[in-house]
Design goal:
alpha+beta, single chain, 114 residues, Structural Genomics Hypothetical 15.5 Kd Protein In mrcA-pckA Intergenic Region, Chain A, five-stranded mixed sheet, 7 strands, 4 helices, two-stranded antiparallel sheet
Length: 114
């Protein structure tokens, strides 16, 4: 593979630094480390309010899944976490409260169930 393809080149951080500035490069590196090395949820994430419903419906309504069926498959495959705990029950309902939802590795949201 040629150098620089796929972001694996040692010059990639230097190019980002030059194009976006030192502060942006440091924020991007910290964000990457938090998500992928430490496996933590980002501190800045969208917030939604939703009435009590099945998890599949909530995931669809906040825009994580295109359909309840897609959300169901993702849950069954272990790709959904509620408050940091993997959930495998696609028929589970979210009761009143505030939750951090993770859909896949990159989609996070704070959801308040009313």
């Amino acid at each position: 593979m040629p150098p620089g393809v796929g972001g694996t080149s040692a010059t990639s951080p230097a190019l980002f630094h030059r194009a976006c500035g030192a502060a942006a490069a440091e924020r991007a590196a910290a964000h990457f480390d938090k998500l992928f090395k430490s496996k933590e949820a980002p501190t800045e994430r969208p917030a939604f309010t939703h009435p009590s419903a099945k998890l599949t419906v909530v995931l669809r309504d906040v825009g994580f899944a295109r359909s309840a069926s897609e959300a169901r498959r993702m849950i069954q495959q272990g790709g959904v976490q509620v408050d940091g705990a993997k959930t495998t029950d696609p028929d589970g309902e979210l009761a009143r409260g505030r939750y951090v939802l993770e859909y896949g590795k990159l989609k996070f949201a704070d959801v308040t169930i009313t």
